[in-house]
Design goal:
The protein has 17 helices and 19 strands. It has helices spanning about 1-10, 15-30, 45-55, 100-105, 165-170, 190-195, 230-240, 290-305, 320, 350-365, 375-385, 385-390, 395-400, 410-435, 450-455, 470-480, 500-505, and strands at about 40, 70, 95, 110-115, 135, 140, 175-180, 195-200, 220-225, 270-275, 310-315, 330, 345-350, 365-370, 440-445, 460, 490-495, 510-515, 525. The chain has an eleven-stranded mixed sheet, sandwiched between helices.
């Protein structure tokens, strides 16, 4: 994205030329060729918008003037593009207005190129649904290995979810950058699988108004980019207070997230590695890594030490990463294609209770040109169109629909309080305070749930590439891809809740890059509060 902005500023490119180039690449590689299927809907007004921006160079007032960006298809646009969350039930549904973050992007001069495909309803529809599948948009494919595993159409290497299309489109060069969303891992996981940088912000840094929700306790949007600087540039645009999302009123942020990018930022930083060989039964993050993942993370840690960081090895308190009492409920797995069909599966109470409440509000306040007004309407539509809409079932929607929908239930209130007690008080807060840490280093997206429950920020950067596959899959990958190395679970991720963020959920200083690792783009010292 930075290179594109430089080209626009110098006059070496125009907004229209860029939009046409990206649309041509989408046609060649997303609609044709490997058929990545990462773009669910193209904006019919994209070229018209781009033409109006020709001759307007990026500036402090309009830093993204002419930059083509995709947004996930659960983010409302008040234009001719539907906002569907990938659901057949919402096919053709429009939004009353732009989501706040879309307004901010437009004000900054971005060209909204289209909507990215996703795991349907951000992966809260069915148990064991493949990452990147939606009944309306079909299956997103990993750009490194677009091959399918079998005739069921499930990818050999999944693209990560739920912001699958947002990630694949950036990795495949189908847009300059994209916007995804996360409730628990939906930015971090696809960034890990596609070798990207992402920031899952502190809840409240970026407005959620106009985003099809799962859980207001944890939902957030965030940038998906190739570099740390690009992610910081998008945070500059997206992080703003919004009266439509009162949580943002507590926000603090710097004037410029890129101002403090520095290569010596790791000197003296205390980074926790939640892995203690003396405590193997409590080594849930590093203890189960495959051998290539273990080697890669050892290389990452060595680089951090070379750059002056102090590495503190200590396992996370068990109470922090385990689900606390009363936080999960059993949901029967009715997915006809799941190997675990017919068995109860533990699911987060907070998600299922907030889902009905929050989706009903979205449908009431934002959705137009649709007969779908409640989550019960979605369930009924899916039942009536089961052959197309319910390939993997709708177990989670059924469980959510069975709740009252007003969040008055005692079990919901207890579950949310226990989430905060475990993830914050007994988890990250206890861990970081005990060891006087500035950050925690997790492999891949493995630290996503604890940070998400706490509402704390996470930053994902590529740390290297691993196959993460058995011998049979490796042989198939070799025949399907120029290289058997694909982004995998050993991409590194830091959670960086400082004392300020843990007390107030606020964000101040920006992420800071260090020198690149071999085979990776950048290792990162984030500092989001």
């Amino acid at each position: 994205m930075s290179d594109i902005i430089n080209a626009l500023t110098s006059g070496r490119a125009t907004a229209t030329a860029l939009a046409k180039t990206y649309l041509a690449r989408i046609d060649a590689y997303d609609r044709g060729g490997p058929m990545l299927n990462s773009v669910r809907e193209l904006n019919p007004d994209a070229l018209m918008i781009a033409r109006k921006l020709d001759g307007i160079v990026p500036s402090a007032k309009r830093p993204l003037a002419g930059v083509p960006i995709l947004v996930k298809d659960n983010i409302a646009t008040g234009d001719r593009q539907p906002t569907t969350a990938g659901s057949l039930a919402l096919e053709g549904a429009r939004a009353r207005d732009d989501a706040t973050i879309v307004k901010l992007l437009r004000d900054a001069g971005a060209v909204i190129l289209g909507k990215a495909n996703l795991t349907e309803f951000a992966n809260i529809l069915a148990i064991d649904m493949p990452s990147g599948y939606s009944s309306l948009g079909g299956q997103v494919r990993n750009p490194y290995v677009p091959a399918l595993a079998d005739d069921r159409g499930i990818p050999l290497v999944d693209p990560g979810g739920s912001s699958s299309g947002s990630a694949v489109a950036v990795a495949a060069g189908l847009c300059a950058a994209s916007i995804g969303t996360e409730t628990s891992g939906s930015l971090l996981h696809p960034a890990s699988r596609n070798g990207l940088v992402t920031v899952k912000p502190t809840v409240g840094l970026i407005s959620r108004a106009g985003i099809v929700p799962i859980s207001h306790s944890q939902d957030t949007a965030g940038p998906m980019t190739r570099t740390v600087r690009d992610a910081a540039m998008l945070l500059n645009v997206l992080a703003a207070k919004d009266p439509l999302d009162p949580v943002t009123e507590r926000q603090r942020r710097p004037a410029d997230y890129t101002a403090d990018l520095a290569r010596d930022a790791l000197k003296g930083a205390r980074i926790g590695v939640p892995s203690d060989p003396a405590d193997p039964l409590n080594d849930c993050y590093y203890g189960k890594l495959p051998p290539d993942g273990t080697r890669l993370m050892a290389d990452v840690i060595m680089v951090l030490e070379d750059l002056g960081a102090v590495i503190v090895r200590a396992s996370m308190p068990t109470a922090g990463w385990m689900n606390g009492p009363g936080t999960i409920m059993a949901v029967l797995n009715r997915n006809p294609l799941s190997a675990n069909k017919g068995n109860p599966v533990a699911q987060r109470i907070v998600f299922l209770y907030e889902l009905k409440h929050d989706v009903n509000l979205y449908l009431r306040d934002w959705a137009i040109k649709t007969d779908i007004k409640t989550i019960a309407d979605i369930v009924a539509f899916n039942d009536d169109n089961a052959e197309k809409a319910l390939r993997f079932g709708q177990d989670l929607l059924l469980a959510a629909n069975a709740t009252r929908g007003d969040l008055s239930e005692r079990e919901y209130k207890s579950a949310r309080a226990m989430d905060l007690l475990t993830a914050r008080t007994r988890g990250l807060d206890a861990y970081m305070n005990q060891h006087k840490l500035d950050a925690v280093l997790f492999p891949g997206a493995m630290g996503a749930p604890i940070a998400a429950k706490a509402g704390y920020p996470s930053v994902m950067v590529p740390g290297g590439f691993v196959s993460g596959a058995d011998d049979k899959t490796r042989r198939t990958i070799r025949s399907a891809s120029p290289s058997p190395a694909v982004p995998g679970a050993s991409t590194s991720c830091c959670v960086w809740p400082t004392r300020s963020s843990r007390r107030h959920g606020r964000t101040s200083r920006p992420p800071r890059p260090t020198r690149p690792l071999a085979g990776a783009r950048r290792q990162l010292k984030p500092s989001l509060m």
